[in-house]
């Protein structure tokens, strides 16, 4: 146990906001000494995610082993008014885990059980330490898979907390469509056995308010998600992938719209602009034509089915001046392609070594997508800042990836301006300031314009009801 000077010495870096004589010993008595860490390096490790936001180390990092410990820590934090920040895998890109007011970071990785797999019901229950790749490895021999794919190997509960999606959404839905029930620990330590009732997993229900959905996208501000019952899908028997280059953004997006209009059950349809293609070529050693490009994937239960889908889309792409439509069912070829897409973020960053990645994430009605992407590209070019555009275009969702030199105030301001402009454009056409990354610390100020005062006030009232002392991830999502 640490006391007095010894305690203070541990916190030599960063400012300590919430450390009292009592804090550490109490946490150690709940969790065991080995599950309470206060070294500067550990605190720094947990003070940030993958975003450009600066490091805000928590005062202490704890690793609960079970829901009862989560509950006890929450109860104590609530009694003493100490911030409590849930931590999944730290792959977020809006500064969700940064401890802006210090406090207790709760790393949930040790709770990593996969339980109650039901092959007949297409669902299973995961604890918060389970990542999507771990879940899919576990499911390998069952014929089932978990579809939501943000690229990064995020924790499934962290994905629930951010309202994540990614490629695949166009066919299988976002995490919002793929959760059946959640176990949540509230700010005062109350364990909600299930937002739908403990152990329940109906495919549908009209029983009261949808509390499951309330916690989707709550970013650690309403409760700690300690397990999630998620939907699974039958693994497609046949998969094929394709790429197609276009003379301009508009023709690429028009092909997407026509594909959706014909109800072709496309599994993924991703857009990469020419700057991103160039980055992927050099990072992943490919030689794709430097042009706006669509990456596509088709799923089906027979080979003829995926072949037919690909043929339909090829015709659509050709009629929109798409050139060189290449499709393949070769596993290696498909892996190469999707690995390149999943590495888009790192590929963009590799173009400007030493800079931090800054991502925007807007979602607009598809009818406005081509124009918004086009205007955004022109805006980036005029600014002189390096940036690429990638998009889950089947959903009207796209990101700009900027490389920013944090030491250069002019560049930082230019990137912030570009990011504000994208949001403005999205809101002006009836879209949203975030399709999937969440609000975190960077987008708090856009919410009022997007939602309007009364809707925002309902959100604030919910926050006050569930977390009256404001201990859960304070300063995130809402300005409170
Ligand atoms: C290269 C790259 C590509 C990405 N692409 C996509 C993409 O295509 N689509 C997409 O949606 N996202 C994408 N992301 C963002 C990221 O993967 C998601 O936001 C993911 O959902 C975060 O999960 P996590 O477990 O890492 O959460 P963390 O980063 O640990 O936490 C994120 C937020 O959720 C809260 N939280 C975490 N776990 C819990 C819990 N158990 N209970 C309550 N609150 C919790 C945290 O407090 C924080 O506010 C990408 C990230 C990277 C680095
Ligand atoms: C409630 O919300 C969840 C999460 O968004 C969703 O998956 C589910 O279908 C909704 N309805 C019910 C009855 O749970």
TrEMBL record:
Chief localization: mitochondrion
Keyword Ribosomal protein: no
Subcellular location: Mitochondrion
GO annotations of cellular component type: mitochondrion
InterPro entries: FAD-bd_oxidored_4_C (IPR004113), FAD-bd_PCMH (IPR016166), FAD-bd_PCMH-like_sf (IPR036318), FAD-bd_PCMH_sub2 (IPR016169), FAD-linked_Oxase-like_C (IPR016164), Oxid_FAD_bind_N (IPR006094), Vanillyl_alc_oxidase_C-sub2 (IPR016171)
UniProt-listed GO biological process terms: lactate catabolic process
EC number(s) on file: 1.1.2.4
Pfam families linked to this entry: FAD-oxidase_C (PF02913), FAD_binding_4 (PF01565)
Recorded catalytic activity of this chain's protein: (R)-lactate + 2 Fe(III)-[cytochrome c] = 2 Fe(II)-[cytochrome c] + pyruvate + 2 H(+)
Entry cofactors: FAD
GO molecular function, one term: D-lactate dehydrogenase (cytochrome) activity
Keywords: Acetylation, FAD, Flavoprotein, Mitochondrion, Oxidoreductase, Transit peptide
Sequence ranges assigned to domain FAD-binding PCMH-type in this UniProt record: 53-235
Enzyme class: oxidoreductase
Database matches in PROSITE patterns: FAD_PCMH
Family from the record: Belongs to the FAD-binding oxidoreductase/transferase type 4 family.
Summary of the function given for this chain in its UniProt record: Involved in D-lactate, but not L-lactate catabolic process.
PANTHER family membership: D-LACTATE DEHYDROGENASE, D-LACTATE DEHYDROGENASE, MITOCHONDRIAL-RELATED
Record's subunit section: Interacts with CSRP3.
Name this polypeptide is given: Probable D-lactate dehydrogenase, mitochondrial
Organism of derivation: Steinernema hermaphroditum
């Amino acid at each position: 146990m640490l006391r007095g000077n010894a305690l203070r010495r541990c916190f030599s870096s960063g400012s300590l906001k919430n450390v009292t004589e009592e804090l550490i010993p109490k946490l150690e008595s709940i969790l065991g000494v080995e599950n309470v860490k206060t070294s500067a390096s550990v605190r720094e490790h947990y003070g940030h995610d993958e975003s450009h936001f600066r490091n805000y180390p928590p005062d202490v990092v704890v690793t609960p082993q079970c829901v009862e410990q989560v509950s006890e820590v929450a109860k104590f934090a609530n009694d003493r008014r100490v911030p409590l920040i849930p931590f999944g895998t730290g792959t977020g890109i809006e500064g969700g885990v940064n401890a802006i007011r210090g406090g207790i970071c709760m790393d949930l990785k040790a709770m990593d059980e996969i339980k109650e797999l039901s092959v007949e019901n297409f669902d299973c229950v995961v604890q918060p330490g389970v990542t999507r790749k771990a879940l899919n490895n576990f499911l390998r021999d069952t014929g089932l898979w978990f579809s939501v794919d943000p690229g990064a190997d995020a924790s499934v509960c962290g994905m629930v907390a951010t309202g994540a999606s990614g490629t695949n959404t166009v066919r299988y839905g976002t995490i919002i469509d793929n959760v059946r029930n959640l176990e949540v620990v509230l700010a005062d330590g109350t364990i909600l056995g299930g937002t739908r009732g403990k152990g329940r997993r109906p495919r549908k229900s009209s029983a009261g308010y949808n509390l499951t959905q309330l916690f989707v996208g709550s970013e650690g501000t309403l409760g700690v998600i300690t397990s999630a019952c998620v939907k699974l899908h039958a693994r497609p028997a046949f998969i094929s992938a394709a790429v197609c280059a276009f003379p301009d953004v508009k023709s690429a997006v028009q092909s997407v719209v026509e594909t959706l209009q014909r109800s072709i059950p496309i599994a993924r349809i991703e857009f990469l602009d020419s700057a991103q293609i160039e980055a992927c070529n050099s990072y992943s050693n490919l030689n794709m034509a430097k042009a706006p490009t669509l990456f596509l994937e088709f799923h089906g239960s027979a080979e003829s089915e995926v072949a037919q889908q690909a043929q339909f889309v090829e015709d659509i792409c050709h009629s929109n001046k798409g050139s060189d439509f290449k499709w393949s069912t070769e596993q290696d070829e498909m892996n190469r392609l999707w690995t390149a897409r999943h590495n888009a973020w790192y590929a963009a960053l590799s173009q400007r070594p030493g800079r931090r990645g800054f991502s925007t994430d807007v979602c607009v009605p598809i009818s406005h997508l081509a124009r918004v992407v086009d205007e955004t590209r022109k805006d980036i070019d005029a600014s002189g800042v390096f940036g690429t555009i990638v998009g889950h275009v089947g959903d009207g969702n796209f990101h700009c990836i900027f490389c920013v030199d944090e030491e250069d105030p002019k560049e930082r301001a230019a990137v912030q301006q570009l990011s504000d402009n994208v949001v403005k454009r999205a809101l002006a056409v009836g879209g949203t300031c975030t399709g999937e990354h969440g609000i975190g610390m960077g987008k708090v100020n856009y919410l009022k314009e997007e939602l309007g005062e009364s809707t925002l006030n309902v959100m604030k009232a919910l926050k006050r009801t569930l977390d009256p002392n404001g201990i859960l991830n304070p300063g995130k999502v809402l300005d409170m």
